[in-house]
């Protein structure tokens, strides 16, 4: 098989691999790759010569080989670290279909730039401007000799895009809010760790206990007041009970004549006469069995 034709096919396959990557990443991230490629080229223009000569004297490589190695390190390192690394680090919105198509187009241009500058360095430093290989390989010759036209075409293509984004860029995003469904509201009721009988904190809406559904209390209860810890003694009389204490008053059962039993009142506890319901088993006030 013709080796020059094989080289052209290999270059076309490498260019085609950039297209799905750009379609997946989008145009915004691929523009960062373009900046990484151009940064690597500029760094190689300034530092490949002196650093390549130092590398050649210390490693035994030829001078052109050292310069080529440093130039390729700048090009590949800047492309992947600055281009792809910066695109992966920045948080960007997911691209749409137009952004993905533009990303595929920009990625194809990035592949052409990366391969073109690599072939140019091979021709200058390794082949010493021997163009015999590139004359027979059509794709390699176009990539290595058409970099100026490629950069000019990219600049002309990006100019109207920049003007359009500056004039008609993305404006404020309007978010539509729909009324919350009652069933969803009930499922999303906030919970807390303490039972609902504990008083809620000041300034916070009442929430439901995680093991009990929200329901009103059977009767009014006295709120719990937290006081500082102190040693207390049982009160000897009613005058010793302060307003901060909860008094449990034991009512004496009513006495009836011998042989006559008291009839329990309907809806009342027979012991403390608190109001109860028919399905209650225990009195909510005294706790006795009904």
Tell me what the structure shows.
The protein is an all-alpha fold and 290 residues long. 53% of the residues lie in helices and 1% in strands. It contains 8 helices and 2 strands, in the order ααααααααββ. It has helices at 3-25, 27-59, 63-89, 97-126, 132-136, 138-145, 147-167, 182-187; strands at 191-192, 208-209. Strands 1-2 form a two-stranded parallel sheet. α1 (3-25) packs antiparallel against α4, α2 packs parallel to α4 and α4 (97-126) crosses α6 (138-145). It is elongated, with a radius of gyration of 42 Å.
Features:
290 residues, mainly alpha, two-stranded parallel ribbon, 8 helices, 53% helix, transmembrane, Colicin-V_CvpA, Zinc_ribbon_dom
Tell me roughly what share of residues is in helical segments.
40-55%
**How many strand elements?**
2
For the CA atoms, what is the radius of gyration?
42 Å
**Low-pLDDT segments:** none
What letter string, H or E per element, gives the SSE order?
HHHHHHHHEE
User: With helices defined by DSSP (H or I, 4 residues minimum), what is the helix count?
Assistant: 8
Strand content: under 5%
Question: Pairing-aware structural class of the strands and helices?
Answer: mainly alpha
Based on Cα principal axes, name the global outline: elongated
Q: Major beta sheet, specifics?
A: 2 strands, parallel
State mean pLDDT (0 to 100 scale): 77
Q: Cα distance, first to last residue?
A: 103 Å
How would you write the strand order of the largest sheet?
1-2
Protein name: Zinc ribbon domain-containing protein
Keywords: Membrane, Transmembrane, Transmembrane helix
Transmembrane segments: 6-24, 31-48, 68-92, 104-126, 146-167
Domain Zinc-ribbon: 269-288
């Amino acid at each position: 098989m013709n080796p020059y034709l094989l080289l052209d096919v290999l270059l076309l396959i490498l260019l085609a691999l950039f297209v799905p990557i750009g379609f997946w990443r989008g145009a915004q991230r691929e523009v960062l790759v373009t900046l990484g490629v151009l940064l690597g080229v500029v760094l190689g223009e300034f530092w490949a010569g002196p650093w390549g000569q130092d590398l050649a004297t210390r490693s035994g490589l030829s001078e052109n080989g050292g310069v080529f190695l440093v130039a390729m390190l700048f090009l590949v390192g800047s492309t992947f670290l600055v281009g792809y690394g910066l695109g992966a680090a920045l948080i960007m919105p997911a691209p749409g279909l137009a952004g993905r198509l533009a990303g595929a187009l920009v990625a194809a241009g990035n592949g052409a730039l990366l391969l073109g500058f690599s072939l140019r360095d091979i021709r200058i430093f390794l082949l010493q401007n021997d163009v015999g290989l590139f004359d027979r390989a059509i794709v390699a010759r176009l990539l290595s000799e058409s970099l100026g036209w490629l950069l000019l075409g990219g600049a002309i293509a990006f100019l109207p895009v920049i003007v359009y984004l500056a004039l008609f860029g993305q404006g404020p995003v309007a978010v539509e809010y729909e009324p919350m469904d009652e069933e969803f509201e009930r499922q999303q009721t906030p919970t807390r760790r303490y039972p609902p009988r504990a008083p809620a904190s000041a300034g916070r809406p009442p929430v439901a206990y995680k093991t009990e559904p929200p329901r009103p209390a059977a009767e009014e209860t006295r709120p719990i007041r937290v006081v500082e810890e102190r040693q207390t003694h049982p009160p000897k009389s009613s005058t010793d009970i302060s307003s901060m204490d909860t008094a449990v008053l034991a009512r004496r059962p009513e006495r009836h004549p011998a042989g006559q039993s008291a009839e329990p009142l309907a809806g009342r506890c027979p012991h403390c006469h608190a109001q109860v319901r028919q399905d209650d088993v225990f009195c909510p006030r005294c706790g006795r069995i009904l």
